[in-house]
């Protein structure tokens, strides 16, 4: 063993149990390799920040180096700047939520909120309920605290509340291990589905009946392309812990998300946050505040909505046109993602290498489940970032890759070597 | 019990073991109340950002809304922007450290680095060695992972390596519970002391002998007011995990710190970071990069050094002039802090209320120890933020408060009711 190896071994043998259990994602590594200019990516969930007018960004930034420089450059409070929290309070009011700035804590993106919620509530073995599939960043954040994650499937009307009730019956009333339910009710990531009002109402009732906290993650709520606004869970019950972010309505490069919660919960999250980062970026908070105060951001948001709607339409049209009859997919009314389900004999992780060779990438479905076992025949495809022409081309390429897989299996089925699904 | 109380109880009964153990600091609450304009604060460690030229901040910010807008507004990699890491690599080279940009990960201030190091290495009961007293934010960050923290006292030459050796003998060689030693070798927080070269060399030897990681936190290294540069631990051994930050040489409002470490350690920290915040602020990283590339930052740094030197001199002079003979204090060659030790019968926490009434605040010493029991007769006083005139006035006020305490005890001693120390 060389000395370099020895050093590596000595440091890694010191790694904590929770981080030892984390594995670098093979998919992530594949994506890193996939920066050839001829590859069309349906993988990431990056907003198209090129739609932001430079004049608005310049205007929002100005305060940080002029009037408010001394604040923007200095440490801030752990909760974040009150003026920026007021902006977030106003943003929530538009959605039907009444929440005072004092009941908000600013986080470094909603991702930090997920980590802090894990840290604040989870001991190893505690139960968390999520949609299955769900946002892989939430799974990563929670898994550091070694919980027992129970997944509830969704359909086009959101989380299957009947299946949730069955799971809750198994868990039992007032089970001290049951901590919270995490949901993305609007244009779910990765599902694209939206929870209908009656299910939202029932979910709140169940949270009181079974005594669990509801964590509502709402990054896409303002990106609705058809249909009417659905009231957030937080508007139905003030007990809900609501996560917001400016990442999809302004820019994720400024790390600014927030948690709106009852003060008892918030004070605990504040305690957890102090040791985590002291405070978020004052600079970013000043820029964000002035973006929403001094620029015509609603007009820019309409541009986002119009652009993403066109891209979603292009994706759904291409799926209808090119995808084989064995595939099914969701039809999102907003957000960034479509969830595709293929026959169970297709493994989308191994198929990714072939897709990459054909010049298209997507996110395999298994990463959206805590065990990495379910979802192997599904994939998330994002329509947020590429042009309608690229989306059409990407879906065509992907359809050809899938078609090749299916042909092989169809031959097996015809020969009686495989049972039709 | 009212319904509001019930809700609070139900949420707090769900709090994790580690956050349940965290207590809101009484001192913090007192500080929050202490924003009367006639109060002079020696409590905080805030750099004086009013010394930064507006033209430099404007120039650094420009890239974020012009040439590099698309990068500044978008998600970045978990490790951070390579161009900004190159700046940090250059900053370390000035100090005598050779470290490639690839061996750096950018964090949200050095505080996030402390949390990530705790997360990456600590299971409950693992041993961490620190100076005692040490930075309270480090204690907060580590304590979330429930370690057994062993404190080694310092003298004017830094950590007492003889006492470290004795502690290591008690811990034993290759003890799997021993994870890392955390030190602030330059102008320690709160001690103000600097570890001399021979102790640094011996510390590195001991780390290899006893198999522990050395975590070197160096926020103040460039703020030296007398004496010559001392080589960082990282320059003596590439195995050291080095934490840097721009908070004290530029601005803490931009959350930009970094970890320089061997790649085996860095890949584990990266895994821990993914779930914690996805990535840091791209916007801040672009601004920081251009501050160090496009502005005369060394000239500004000299202004910081000159200003803080004058303030340190004012503090040491006032201490010599006003403080009673029973008090001792450190004489820092750089950084922000002086550590004052009073006779053991003085409790600086309870004395803080009297100091506040006299219009001066400081940080009581017990917060800088993991158990909150030691350090009760000490205090940290910061000279970074107030003018020399205010520092003189503050020390005069503080001396009067201490004098009043001491008079009482002197009377007890004279009466034979207390033994002289």
Automatic annotation (TrEMBL), chains A, B:
Domain of life of the source: Bacteria
Any GO BP annotation: alpha-amino acid metabolic process
Domain Aminotransferase class I/classII large: 39-398
Record keywords, A-Z: Aminotransferase, Pyridoxal phosphate, Transferase
UniProt cross-references to InterPro entries, sorted A to Z: Aminotransferase_I/II_large (IPR004839), Class-I_PLP-dep_aminotransf (IPR050859), PyrdxlP-dep_Trfase (IPR015424), PyrdxlP-dep_Trfase_major (IPR015421), PyrdxlP-dep_Trfase_small (IPR015422)
Swiss-Prot/TrEMBL cofactor(s): pyridoxal 5'-phosphate
Molecular function as annotated in GO: pyridoxal phosphate binding; transaminase activity
Pfam families: Aminotran_1_2 (PF00155)
Family statement: Belongs to the class-I pyridoxal-phosphate-dependent aminotransferase family.
UniProt subunit comment: Homodimer.
Name assigned to this protein: GntR family transcriptional regulator
């Amino acid at each position: 063993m060389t000395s370099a190896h020895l050093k590596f071994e000595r440091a890694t043998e010191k790694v904590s149990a929770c981080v030892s259990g984390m594995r670098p994602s093979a998919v992530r590594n594949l994506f890193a390799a996939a920066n050839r200019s001829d590859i069309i990516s349906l993988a990431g969930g990056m907003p198209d920040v090129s739609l932001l007018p430079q004049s608005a960004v310049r205007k929002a930034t100005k305060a940080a180096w002029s009037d408010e420089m001394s604040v923007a450059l200095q440490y801030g409070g752990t909760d974040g700047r009150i003026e920026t929290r007021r902006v977030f309070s106003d943003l929530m009011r538009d959605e039907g939520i009444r929440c005072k700035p004092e009941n908000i804590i600013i986080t470094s993106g909603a991702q930090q909120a997920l980590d802090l919620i894990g840290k604040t509530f989870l001991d190893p073995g505690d139960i968390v309920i999520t949609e299955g599939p769900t946002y892989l960043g939430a799974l990563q954040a929670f898994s550091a605290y070694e919980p027992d994650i129970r997944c509830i499937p969704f359909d086009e009307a959101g989380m299957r509340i009947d299946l949730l009730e069955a799971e809750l019956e198994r868990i039992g009333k007032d089970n001290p291990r049951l901590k919270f339910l995490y949901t993305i009710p609007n244009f779910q990531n990765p599902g694209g589905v939206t929870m209908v009002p009656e299910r939202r109402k029932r979910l709140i009732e169940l949270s009181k009946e079974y005594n669990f906290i509801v964590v509502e993650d709402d990054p896409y709520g303002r990106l609705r392309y058809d249909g009417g606004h659905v009231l957030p869970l937080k508007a139905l019950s003030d007990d809900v812990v609501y996560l917001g972010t400016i990442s999809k309505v302004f820019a994720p490069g400024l790390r600014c998300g927030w948690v709106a919660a009852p003060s008892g919960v918030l004070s605990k999250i504040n305690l957890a946050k102090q040791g985590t980062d002291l405070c978020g970026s004052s600079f970013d908070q000043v820029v964000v505040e002035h973006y929403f105060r001094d620029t015509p951001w609603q007009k820019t948001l309409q541009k986002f909505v119009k652009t993403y709607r066109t891209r979603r339409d292009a994706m759904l049209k291409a799926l209808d046109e090119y995808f084989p009859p064995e595939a099914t997919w969701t039809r999102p009314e907003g957000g960034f993602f479509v969830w595709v389900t293929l026959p169970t004999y297709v493994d989308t992780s191994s198929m990714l290498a072939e897709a990459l060779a054909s010049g298209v990438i997507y996110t395999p479905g298994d990463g959206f489940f805590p065990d990495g076992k379910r979802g192997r025949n599904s994939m998330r495809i994002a329509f947020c970032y590429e042009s309608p022409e690229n989306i059409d081309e990407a879906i065509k390429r992907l359809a050809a890759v899938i078609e090749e897989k299916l042909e092989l299996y169809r031959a097996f089925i015809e020969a009686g070597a495989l049972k039709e699904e």
